[in-house]
TrEMBL record, chains A, B:
Alphabetical list of Pfam families matching this protein: Glyco_hydro_20, Glycohydro_20b2
Domain Beta-hexosaminidase eukaryotic type N-terminal: start-end pairs: 96-148
Descriptive protein name: Beta-hexosaminidase
CDD domains: GH20_HexA_HexB-like
A GO biological process held by the record: carbohydrate metabolic process
Enzymatic class: hydrolase
Cited function: Responsible for the degradation of GM2 gangliosides, and a variety of other molecules containing terminal N-acetyl hexosamines. Degrades chitotriose.
Lineage: Eukaryota, Metazoa, Ecdysozoa, Nematoda, Chromadorea
Length: 557, 557
């Protein structure tokens, strides 16, 4: 077969482009069979191949019993590959087989840090072949194949673009952080976000389970935490729910990293007697809002150790997020105005330096982590680096910074100390704004979230070794104003911009203007699959607009 | 029966309130059986009455064949009155009848301007009685009854609070403006917004059907308008769709006021040959984006007349919105740089004063409106008042202003000229911001949308006669960034704040802090009814969170 040598920019639907309203291209200049996030290398062929639903098959080779691949085949064949609510053509003369060839054995656990996601995909008119080291790579390749499929309005047929693709992620950590404490999110809604994450080749769900407001996580050993701390008995993830989400994520090639934020943001842990200090307002009155751990109580460390042992049995990911942010917000109320704490500090020779008390707490926490029976690499928010002395085994999670430059400076400083970094500051998607904020400056700060397509976590002056320490990024959608009703539309496709930044080669994804026709096709494809992917580029339309009851249409296939 | 003399503030769940995070009350201090928008007068009784689904009935008296009331009874009995996804208790010993007594005949048409919406509602343990002049008042009363119903978690029963209510709206025009040109909205999604509008006692759908970007409206007489101007053949409201929406709105006591924006914002009318001027960029090149009518072409006026005759046959509302905004945005390109227009202006003695050409157009438009076979009262955006000479029969629609004070000044100026006013400037809900923008100042301008609970359209220095000219307000959700995926959660409950401002007595609704427990109950009630009402007061929860498949649960009733 001849090498396929069409240039990348032909990806964009060829047409005489002309200006339209809102200073942009006409709204129907979207790509056809464009891939998001952009692959490492993609060369399109000149031909398209018509696909007939009753003549297409996925051949899993020797992996016919692998649940990850069986689930993949079911999703793509029955839901995602022919998403548009039209009749799927049948009856073509020849079968079309997608051969999936995976080198490694079918894994029983989720992907771990550094698991290969590389794949090779060759789509010709005769067949398609996905080759990958791991099932995770196969998942990524299958999504890419499905994105080469498009509905041809003229012939009323599904077609696939021929192409040769070599693809692998730029960063190993590409995630979404959800916050189930400020508002509860149902298992169903979380699973929908996992679906969309997989379609964007994201691989980490950072689950900020618990915060000041509520404790929806169920500990089997310490049920008083959720019975007291959850909003209500309906606002709880049962042990089964958690296992269900972890397994669902696994089937989509997504790791689940839980966060238990310590020692601040802990008001909802009040079910554990003695866990929190008393806190006082400026008049010396109890605030009723204790939000900081009592480090004097030795039982608390035994409790944390026991709690975390259970967490390691529940969540298999080798990373464990332990928070550590914004302790200083509560220090005055809960430690400085607390006479018992003050006495304890004096006895321990800390004087009135509360940072020493923070360090005291964290040193004990590091020891607990080190002594876990099942080993974990801890992640901490950047305050551990800024104010304290992180254990050298830690990963630092950057969340501050008012400009991209300031954020890059933070990344530089942490990596200069040889600590690995995950970046979220550029991508606080909870901070909504009016406009195309994924690409445009809309006022406010970088952290308050605009131009996130343009934040590149290795864009700092540093050595190659430093840049190797940048593990990736996590887009955060904090839960103050987000629940089941609005998380999906608010998150997507804004998080898709982050997904491309973290997966694709930087040099090929420099301009949002070049990206939007592919992003628009992505939006419409996902809308057709039944997900609420909102408009983010001013007026436009999709060939088929979102329909609540699309799933009913689909189920008729 | 003794008069019920419990004070209004008992409406709020009585409990020792205590501070919580985000500087507010604890998230479960919501009202129980609170009514939104707050009625003119409400006095709660001391007792609650348990309701059993199989023992409750609605007696329509002599109106048993009235479609509005039959639809109402069906909605409330089968969907909205017992919304929570729990088993409805059955088997109580005594029947509970809601008697609906309407004085006027069942209307065949929609409500018109000034139709009475007043109702009296008495809910006792033995029965409930709704008395109203019109079916529209009965609809409002029935919604209020349904809001007195709550699910009692302790007894696991539905109960209704006893109360006596006298209620009527403060303003006759209380609306939502949707924009189906920038993004298409499906009939289903529009109907869902009409449902929620009715639950907020809103009574006007201002349908901005057509704009520069697309022409989804179907004219039977001029099909070239939509065949050329719609985004695609799927992005069209058929004649049947329009009639369906109008009738659906009618069944919910909602008028539909269509807008056909002239003479600017007209690019999508290009299907009508000769309708638009040629427009030129600064180099004298054609822009390909004509967005202004050609007033030289006399045929255009004949066309507009014929088009609007059909509109009056399609939309029965006595008001007709004809736009008139932002003409100046296109004047340089389309009139000043256009040599033919310049020549025409000189011939007509207008020199180079394009305002005279605007006036020329509008005078002809006023004449067309006057000569319509079915009479219509025209509404124009405020530029007609600011720049031109509105016909004295016009209503002026205020949409500008950077502060509440500036908006009040506009209202003052227009009413001082004895012209009626509708206000939208305070409520541009498309301008999203991070935070509780319905009540808090979040930067930007008033028009860019914060503190909209606090905008009161009669808060200007003026005579009583002037204040009588304030017809009400319309919350606008322009379509640049809104489609089927996100309109519902983005609109509600932010628009509910507007609904209360426009319905309820000003003196009883002065403080958002007092309103939020009722607003929170409203949100949760509507979430339980299956609508995407997003959080808007920082962390909180509902007894039952939004569930996509709630309608399935409901259908099992």
């Amino acid at each position: 077969m001849q090498p396929l040598i069409l240039l990348l920019h032909l990806l964009i639907f060829v047409s005489i482009s002309h200006a339209w309203f809102y200073g942009r291209d006409a709204p129907d200049r979207w790509s056809v069979g464009g891939v998001w996030p952009l692959p490492h290398k993609i060369v399109y062929g000149s031909k398209n191949k018509t696909l007939y639903h009753d003549k297409i098959g996925i051949d899993l080779g020797g992996k016919k019993n692998c649940d990850v691949l069986l689930n993949m085949a079911d999703n793509y064949m029955n839901k995602w590959m022919f998403p548009f609510p039209v009749e799927v053509p049948t009856g073509g003369s020849d079968d079309y087989i997608i051969t999936v060839s995976v080198k490694e054995d079918c894994p029983t656990g989720p992907p771990i840090h550094g698991s290969s996601e590389e794949y090779f995909l060759r789509v010709s008119v005769g067949e398609a072949v996905i080759t990958a080291q791991t099932v995770w790579g196969a998942l990524r390749g299958m999504e890419t194949f499905s994105q080469l499929v498009f509905y041809d309005e003229k012939s009323k047929e599904y077609k696939v673009r021929t192409a040769e693709i070599v693809d692998r992620p730029r960063f190993p950590v590409r995630g979404i952080m959800i916050d189930t404490s400020r508002h509860f999110l149902s298992v169903k809604v979380i699973k929908r976000q996992l679906d969309i994450m997989a379609m964007n080749k994201l691989n980490v769900l950072h689950w900020h389970l618990v915060d000041s407001e509520s404790f929806p996580y169920t500990s089997a050993r310490f049920p008083e935490l959720h019975t007291v701390g959850a909003y209500s008995p309906r606002h709880v993830y049962s042990r089964k729910d958690v296992a269900d989400i972890i397994n669902y994520a696994r089937l989509h090639g997504i790791r689940v990293i839980p966060e238990f934020d310590l020692p601040g943001h802990t008001s909802a842990w009040r079910g554990k007697k003695g866990f929190l200090t008393e806190c006082f307002d400026e008049h010396g009155e109890l605030t009723n809002l204790p939000n900081l751990i009592d480090p004097m109580n030795e039982n608390n460390f035994a409790f944390i150790a026991e709690f975390l042992e259970e967490v390691t049995q529940t969540f298999s990911d080798p990373f464990l997020h332990l928070g550590g942010d914004e302790v200083s917000d509560y220090i005055v109320e809960c430690w400085e105005r607390n006479q018992k704490i003050q006495k304890f500090m004096r006895e321990k020779g800390m004087g009135n330096n509360t940072v020493l008390l923070e360090n005291y707490f964290f040193e004990k926490l590091f020891k607990i982590v080190k002594e876990l029976k099942i080993k974990r690499k801890p992640i901490f928010w950047q305050e551990l680096f800024d104010n304290n002395n992180p254990d050298p085994n830690s990963i630092i999670h950057i969340w501050k910074g008012n400009s991209h430059e300031e954020i890059y400076e933070y990344i530089h400083n942490v990596t200069a100390q040889n600590l690995p970094v995950i970046v979220s500051s550029c991508w606080y998607l909870n901070y909504i704004k009016y406009g195309a904020d994924w690409r445009d400056e809309i006022g406010g700060t970088a952290k308050s979230n605009s131009r996130y397509y343009y934040c590149d976590p290795t864009n700092f002056n540093g050595t190659d070794a430093q840049k190797q320490l940048v593990l990736g990024g996590i887009a955060a959608i904090w839960g103050e104003l987000v629940d089941n009703t609005n998380i999906e539309a608010r998150l997507w496709p804004r998080a898709s911009a982050v997904a491309e930044r973290l997966w694709s080669p930087a040099e090929k994804t420099q301009r949002a203007e070049d990206a939007w026709p592919r992003m628009h096709e992505l939006r419409c494809r996902l809308v057709s699959r039944g997900y609420r992917i909102q408009p983010n580029n001013n007026p436009d339309y999709c060939p088929f607009e979102f329909d609540e009851d699309l799933k009913n249409v689909r189920n008729e296939f």
